[in-house]
Amino acid sequence: MKCYSGRILFVDLKLGNIVCKELDEECIRKYIGQRGLAASLYIDITTSTEPVDETAIIMMTGPLTGLFGPASGRFQIVSVSALSNKFATLNCGGHFGPMMKMAGYDGLIITGESPNPVYLYISDTRSELVSATDLTGYQAGHTSDKLRGIYGQTSRVISTSGAGELGSPFAALYGDDFPLSGSAGMGAAFGSKNLKAIVCNGGLSISAANSEEYFQLAASCRKTVMEHPTAIALSGGGIEAFHQLREAIGSRRLRAFQEGIDRQSSKQLCLHTSKEEYLHKRIACYSCPIGCLRISAINNGVYQGQGPGSEREALAAFGDCVDNDISSALYCYWFCHQNGLDPAALSRAALATGINTVESLCRFIEACAADPLYVEARSEYSASSFLSYAAQAGEELPQDQDALLAFLESSGICPNCCEALSPENISELIASATGWDFTVEEGLAVGGRILAVETRLLQSSDRTKTIV
């Protein structure tokens, strides 16, 4: 199968076993990859295997992941959310997904709990579990630096922080040094399994079934993306610009996080941080023509420094805690990441507790990193009340559009680029990459199957016990 490796790595942390298995071609055709294939495999692992592992972690790439294309670096992570105790599926970017494919695997399935802290090393020549005792307590950036020092600077690393090890429901995962998937507390999912990190090196080539045709289609799609208003806004203003576009069309996701927040002040705050004076450099995920990620900077004053670019919902809530002072809010955003926590969820918890100074906000962040139950003990809300807006509420879409989104998020292309491309564009890319006779109608059918599986998973994953 062109563009697929056709293989998946099964990792049993409890027994220390690593086994490579072949993917069923019929299942691939039925669910395409990424979001769809991850959900399908997850329901098998959590319901039909013995012993059942209800907190398995699955990472899955799409058919276009790793190929030349407009932002073709996406992969999916699915597991149980430490915030909601329900099935969670996260669409992630960066460079890890393509590297996993270059190592010869379409995905990973991780089960069991290691008796001791470990990290997983994957390459196209070997895979092994390695003791991570000397990494215990490290924050993600330090972990990445240490592991890339061992395996080379081109290695790609996913890691959790000390907060994830302790089981904080706000713990995020990090891809290399950058936030990878904050919402849903996936850092705690790693921590619950004593899995500190995954390191990946790969040198295998990924090719399309019809290489010349695919290259022409992908080049045309990149041009379309770069000329689209969404891409222009994202390139100039980062993710904040995307939020402004969503607000303009009445996005329910934005309404969810804006509840209880001073909207006008937060809007001005976020607009300021997207300006050049707070921009250190732009960062692009694999094969991305846009580069919407940012490294922000404060160049003067008491909070001088650099850190990940801001997300509107987090910066808005932090801003409300510190009188909408830009430098103070941005510093607290960075401080949250320095402690390995998701600012989008934690900022709402901070707002609910009535914090109103930078010093008290930083103490609150440190306490949440050190004590998984800190918020529940001091608030009338549970931690799950503070899911980020993206996890709280999906868009109010007709069923066929929900199916279309599920299909697009199984392709390996970034959803931001899918804003600019038509379903026909994505279907043509998949047809050329796989060699299949693939149409939009088949894509919608794939999306419908994905929604059915995810509905079953959500209905069956309602728990009273946390994975902490």
Task: Compose a concise summary of this entry.
The chain is of the alpha+beta class and 468 residues long. The protein has 21 helices and 15 strands. Mean pLDDT is 84; it is low at 245-264, 380-397 and 463-468.
Question: In whole angstroms, how far apart are the ends?
Answer: 39 Å
The chain-level mean pLDDT equals: 84
Q: Return the structural class.
A: alpha+beta
Query: How many DSSP-defined strands?
Result: 15
Q: What do we call the CATH topology of the largest domain?
A: Aldehyde Ferredoxin Oxidoreductase,  A, domain 1
How many helices? The count is: 21
Helix content: 40-55%
What is the makeup of the main sheet? 6 strands, mixed
* CATH level 4 superfamily of the largest domain: Aldehyde ferredoxin oxidoreductase, N-terminal domain
Low-confidence stretches: 245-264, 380-397, 463-468
Oligomer: single chain
Strand fraction: 15-25%
- What is the strand arrangement across the widest sheet? 2-1-6-3-4-5
* Tertiary shape: globular
Number of domains: 2
